[in-house]
Design goal:
Blueprint lengths: L13 E2 L5 E2 L2 H4 L7 H38 L5 H25 L8
Antiparallel strand pairs: 1-2
């Protein structure tokens, strides 16, 4: 070997009074210490809350869908027929307006 020396970093871990594993003073200032119990409990509660929210969304959505379907079935004229009639009215009005514009119908301002 050409005079190189190898160095190794040794970390001493001790069990503190609160049961939390802690590193020596050189490493303590760099990273926070976490206990895993509260983190696991928090993650489990978030997961359970998300599951309950999804179930609630499913129940509410299915009820809304069913109520809307019953409302549409109870109508005298279905929405598709109303939309078709309104489209015919709009097309007729647009054609009448276009014809009046092209033919130059003058307005009588004296009456």
């Amino acid at each position: 070997m050409s005079g190189r020396t190898a160095t190794a970093k040794v970390m001493v871990i001790s069990n503190g009074q609160d049961g939390v594993m802690s590193a020596n003073a050189n490493e303590n200032g760099n990273l926070p210490e976490f206990r895993t119990g509260p983190l696991i409990t928090g993650a489990a509660l978030v997961g359970a809350g998300a599951a309950v929210a999804l179930v609630g969304l499913g129940v509410g959505g299915s009820h809304l869908f069913a109520a809307t379907r019953r409302w549409i079935q109870a109508m005298d004229v279905p929405p598709s027929e109303v939309a078709r009639l309104k489209w015919v009215q709009a097309r007729t009005a647009a054609a009448a307006g276009t014809a009046a514009w092209r033919n130059g119908v003058s307005a009588n301002v004296n009456s």
